[in-house]
TrEMBL record:
Name this protein carries in UniProt: Uncharacterized protein
UniProt keyword list: Membrane, Transmembrane, Transmembrane helix
Gene3D superfamilies for this protein: 1.20.140.150
Metal-binding recorded as keyword: no
Amino acid sequence: MESPRNLVLLGTLIGIIPIVLGIVALVTPKWIEFSGSRREHSAILTMYYYHKFAIIGFIIGLFAIILGIIALTTSNWISINHNQLSDPIIYDLFQQCDRNETNKCTDFESFRIPQYFEIIGYIILVIGVFVGVLCTEFVNKRNIHIISPIILIIGIIMIFLGFIFYIKYVIEINSTLTITKLDLGYSMILMISTCIIGCILTAYFSFTAGYTHRHILATVNIY
């Protein structure tokens, strides 16, 4: 099934545009300019540190975005060996491919559920990254900052549910065979890494939310 992968690639190419714009925006210093009183100077310093927090979050999130793109668009999720074939059977998120002289690939309708969980979960995770970066940069209310970790957690849970359904269906497809070896492919490992980075981001944006709230309550400069 090539069309879903092509759609993922198309979405990736479109998604590169806001990523590039975001990088340029975050690494350039000219956002808002204040002049005059000490209080205004304090506001500049505060925004400077929020700016640094946002850049750190974006850099970490960029790793998750890139790894997720590679995982979804490559074709080595699980490799299975069984006693009836010398060559392994390779599964990606969309189909099964026999690594023999035929190189035959077969689509499975049962893969639709893990596909939905993986792709939608990844999209939600990416949204959580951008919400976290924007909230860290522009918003100083803790209640708003909490939104990003919640979004990230939802995305991570959906991706892990996709893993569970995916492995379950792969085992069911091969239930009549004696599986001698099951290996996780690099694509699934990359997707697992995406989830791990998502967990790190959840903790990071939770920290920035608490730090921002503490700064507001103390009414002092975080410098």
